[in-house]
Amino acid sequence: MATAQEIVAHAQRWELLRQRRAKETLRSVYRVDDRYVAKKFEIPLAARRYRRPWLAEDACLRRLDGRGAPRSLGWFEETKADQRVVWLVKDYVAGAPVETFAAADLPAAARLLAGVHAQAVVTADASAGNFLRAPDGRMAFLDFGRARLYPRAGLHLDAAIGWELAKLRREGFRWDADLWHAFLPLYFVALGASLPRQIRIRLACTASVALRRIRKTLQGKNPRS
Prior knowledge:
The protein is an alpha+beta fold. It is built from 6 helices and 10 strands; from the N terminus they run αβββαβββαββββααα.
């Protein structure tokens, strides 16, 4: 199997999918040879304090090992002129990003997210566009750039799951009550969560929603935004 460095060095076709600047880092995402996705992070050598999201993403993808997510092929760092350049390479997963969830999507979405959480990984970015409908009907999750890896199940993980589900309710289901109430039982069954664990996750989710609404209200913004 080719290494990340070999894939970048010998690639023939590059397609820029998106690019944005986050503070001092320019982040670019490419589809490479229709087989891989390469994330490029360009950071000035003069920068001393900067985020290293490739470390967490690589670790999370390696733990998931292709279960509902692309496989990581590793990362490497190089220096070009006055830039520190980091490449993270993972498998390309064919399919179409979700624009709007429908009721028919809920079983696959529940199995996917429960499978990720069962490995003590939280994506921290459960918006609709990060879910991918694969040609075989399954779903995959695309972007683990904000993901967190937990050493084991426990209160910290359940709290993080609750906050993640709150984001899914807001940015995935767009506050659609029917989708949300249909999703939760499917998710808890797929997770195999005991009743006490379900209660902990629900409480964390409710707290996240309440705190966000309070913050938005104090900022003079729409509390449901």
